[in-house]
Automatic annotation (TrEMBL):
Family, similarity comment: Belongs to the LysR transcriptional regulatory family.
UniProt-recorded name of the protein: LysR family transcriptional regulator
CDD domains for this protein: PBP2_LTTR_like_6
PANTHER family to which the protein is assigned, alphabetical: LYSR SUBSTRATE-BINDING, TRANSCRIPTIONAL DUAL REGULATOR HCAR-RELATED
Swiss-Prot/TrEMBL keywords: DNA-binding, Transcription, Transcription regulation
GO annotation, cellular component aspect: protein-DNA complex
Amino acid sequence: MLDVRKLRLLRDLARHGTIAAVADALSYTPSAVSQQLAALEREAGVPLLERTGRRVTLTPAGAIPVEHAEAVLAALAQADAALAAVRTGLIGPLRLGAFPSAVRTLLPAALVALGRAHPGLELRVTELDPVGVPDALRTGRLDVALVHDYDHVPIEPDPALDTEPLIDETMYLVGAASLAETADAPWITGTPGTLCHTAALRSCQAAGFTPRVRHHADDFSTVLSLVAAGQGVALVPQLAAADPPPSVTLTPLDTHRRTRIAYRRGTGRHPAIAACVAAIHASAAEYLSH
C-alpha cells in the first residue's frame, strides 16, 4: 500500500516541477525529498519518475497515483473532521492566513468571537499575499485563509482546496477621475508578483496603456499616503478605501475584487474549521453593514 505522506510529496512534485521547489515549500532538504520519492517507487514496484539532468518528470505510471492523490487526501481529511466532531471542545492550534487589508478589517472581530466561544483554540494569524496561500494550505502551514481575485486577474480553482464566497468589493481609482487620464501619470502599485500589482497592470492595459510605475507599496494605507503626497495614482479595493486622507479623490470603477475563504479539501466539516469560517462570515457581514 502506498504511503500517504510520500504520495503527498509526489503530488507536490507534479505541481512544483522540481525536487528543490518541493523541498523549499515543505522546509525539507532536497535529499530527504529524493529519498522519500525513491521509497515510494519501491512501494509502487514501477518507475514513477524520469530524471533528465536536474529536471524530474512523472512517468505515465507516476501520473496514476497523482491523479488519485487529491481524493485520497480529502477522504483522510474528512475522516479526521468526523473524529474531531465527537471530541469534547475545540483545542489546539488553528492557523489563519490573510492579506493585509483583511487582517486589519475582517479578522479582528472574528478572532475575538472565536477566542470567547472556544478558549482552547490557539489562534495564529499570518499575513501573506494570496499568491502564497495554496502552498501554505496544502502543506498544513495554514488551516484557513482568505484569497482573492480580480476581474482582470481570474484565478483557476485549485483541486486541493475548497473555497466559499465572502465579499465582493468595488475597486477605486485613487487620485484621478478616470483611468484614461492616468496614461501619462506616475503610478503606485504593489510589489511585482503580487495579485494587486498584476491587477493594476491589467486594468491599465485593458484601458489601452501600460502604467508608468514609480513606487511599489503593498500596504494600502501607505499607498493612500503616497497619493496624498502627490506621488502618483493607484487602485485600491473597498476595504482599503474606508478612511482615505481628506485630499484624496476616490473614483469607483466597474471592476471588482472578490474574496473567498479557503481551506484544504475535505476539512470544511472539521468543527474548528467550521467555527472559524462562521466567525469570519459574521465579522465580514458586521463590518460591511457600517
